[in-house]
Amino acid sequence: MAMSMHRVLCFASGRVKRCGFTLVELLVVISIIGVLVGLLLPAVQAAREAARRTQSQNNLKQIGLALLNYEIALKSFPSGYVSSIGVPSVNAATLDAAPGWAWGTLLLPYMEQSSLYNQLDMTLPCWHPRNEVIVKSRVPTFLNPGAANFDGDTIVTNDSNTVLARFGRSHYVGNCGQDEPWGYVPPVQDWSRLASGPLYRNSRVRISGVTDGLSNTVFVGEHTTISDKTWVGVVPGSFSCPKDPQRFPFTDCDHGATYVLCHSGPAADEPGIVHPPSFPTCHVCQMYAPWNGGGGYVLLGDGSVRYIATTINLDTWAAMSSCALGEVFSHDE
């Protein structure tokens, strides 16, 4: 018995060939793994960004199909947002009024969201308590997977930072054109004389009205990171503000219309200034994308999606943002 135990202990103490790693060998293996991870990580990140870009393009294409189907059914594209005229509750600074529903809400039945749309009481303002729960819904088609501000509600506030409503988030804004009709003092009721784009307050633009051509006109584009937008609507007296003023020092809060709309410039109060997607000025009222490389995806009126570089010719971008001014340009500029 003693002899048997001795043999076991000798066997355990190393009379067979050792199969483990030395410390040096282990460090070499770890170093090799680290190098491989370092080589693969950029490729993985690039693949993820490519997938997010593709998803955002698909979202815009779905929105484009919904816009065209809406126009076929109702003989015009949806309003940028709907505002009553001449009612006692009109906001004096902007002439915005109830019900406030925006183009995103109006498109819901045409993008497989009829059940959500049918739960809304469209006869009431978009901020009415009866609609409070439904208007906070997350609609995947309106969410850009590459956006940093992806989660949570869009909190709508006034100039005193009082919360007026909580809406579902959107990372896409409608194109109002070159000028910003919401910025006039005194305010202008009829934006059709100021807005050169297809989507603005109480707009009823038809395909026949896009005389510059659907393939030459921007309808919708990405807006992320700078400020929170919504698919729901516009609350009178609200202000859209930059999420991080230290990071985006060139933009101030803007009127509530910019929760759902943007413009390209030049505007009446900014002569000669044009800001294409992701332009460094980074206004809450411009298109801004999350992608590295400077630019963003936009939806044209024919349903196609294009990547517009920040370095695009400024006159070309301004021309693409209008729908009936007759500008001549090349898509290669």
Please state the structural category: alpha+beta
Strand content: 5-15%
Helix tally equals 5
* Multimerization state: single chain
Radius of gyration: 27 Å
Q: Which descriptors would you attach to this protein?
A:
single chain; 333 residues; alpha+beta; 5 helices; disordered N terminus
Topology of this protein?
Layout: H1 2-12, H2 23-74, E1 81-83, E2 99-102, H3 103-107, H4 114-119, E3 154-158, E4 163-167, E5 169-170, E6 172-175, E7 218-222, E8 229-230, E9 238-240, E10 254-255, E11 261-262, E12 295-300, E13 305-309, H5 314-320
Describe this entry's structure for a reader:
It is globular and about 85 Å long. Strands 11-6-7-12-13 form a 5-stranded mixed beta sheet, with helices on one face. Strands 4-3-9-10 form a 4-stranded antiparallel beta sheet, with no helix packed on it. It has a two-stranded antiparallel sheet with strand order 1-2. It contains 5 helices and 13 strands. By secondary structure, the chain is an alpha+beta fold. It has one domain (42-320).
